[in-house]
Write a structure and sequence with these properties.
The chain is α/β, with parallel strands linked by helices. The chain has helices spanning 2-18, 25-33, 65-74, 92-101, 114-126, 163-167, and strands spanning 54-55, 61-62, 82-86, 106-111, 132-136, 149-154, 169-180, 185-194, 197-206. The chain starts with a helix and ends in a 12-residue tail after the last strand.
């Protein structure tokens, strides 16, 4: 199975580069380093590098690799950045980000479901990731204790651009989040260019599970 996984991973990377889906070489290196098969359920391991989302726990999913690539690349991460992730899931996205920001960087990731907190902690420990802090909380409100952040990523569908998260973003920082209806969202890249000034870029249509919590879907 290991040979199949490596071949699937190689084909996916070749597709991204050929079609210019991914231009950030740091993401490619992180994708090579972090084994996605260690962040999914045992019964789906053979599908780890097939380009679609997979079920994890609690009716949640791990996003398809191309979606993760597009979102991560849009954050414009640098070594030493402090990043807030809303929706830890299996911990895979946080692991990818942690490699890119390096040992001097930090990832704070929030998860509202306790079973997923435990799942992600186990997966990150197995991967040897030490610069990720998982918080069991309502991430729709962000995490003010560690604010401000260089980048914020939301891995669940938001009914609107989360204002509480924009408040916790540094000037010059970037927020990436799927915003729209429960059934279909636009991936928005929001750059904070002033205290209350933002530049918004539409990265296309996506479909995510809904954001839960105070500022999520009721």
């Amino acid at each position: 199975m290991l040979e199949k996984l490596e071949n699937d991973k190689k084909r996916l990377i070749e597709y991204w580069l050929k079609n210019r889906v991914v231009k950030d070489k740091r993401f490619i290196e992180a994708f090579k380093k972090i084994r996605r098969e260690n962040f999914i359920l045992e019964e789906y391991k053979e599908e780890a590098y097939v380009d679609y989302p997979l079920p994890i726990l609690e009716g949640q999913t791990i996003s398809q690799p191309t979606t993760i690539a597009i979102m991560t690349q849009a954050l414009e991460l640098k070594k030493g950045h402090k990043v807030l992730e809303i929706g830890t899931g299996s911990g895979y996205q946080a692991a990818i980000i942690s490699v890119i920001v390096g040992n001097k960087g930090k990832v704070i990731t929030t998860e509202i479901k306790k079973s997923l907190v435990d799942f992600a902690k186990k997966n990150l420990k197995k991967a040897g990731i030490k610069n990720v802090k998982i918080i069991h909380s309502d991430g729709s409100s962000g995490y003010e204790r560690e604010a401000p952040y260089d980048a914020i990523i939301v891995t669940a569908a938001c009914p609107e651009i989360p204002k509480k998260l924009l408040e916790q973003l540094k000037i010059g920082g970037i927020l990436v989040a799927p915003v729209g209806s429960i059934f279909l969202q636009k991936m928005l890249k929001v750059k904070k260019i002033g205290k209350n000034k933002f530049k918004i870029e539409d990265l296309g249509e996506f479909r995510f599970v809904p954001l839960k919590g105070k500022f999520g879907w009721k």
